[in-house]
Amino acid sequence: MTEELQQEGLIRISDDVVATIAGLAALETPGVSAMSGGISEGLAKRLSGRNAQKGVSVEVGQLEAAIDLRIVVQYGIPIHEVGRRLQDNVREAVENMTGLRVVEVNVKIEGVAFKDEEPEEAHRVK
Question: For residues 88 and 17, what is the distance between their CA atoms, to the nearest angstrom?
Answer without folding.
Answer: 18
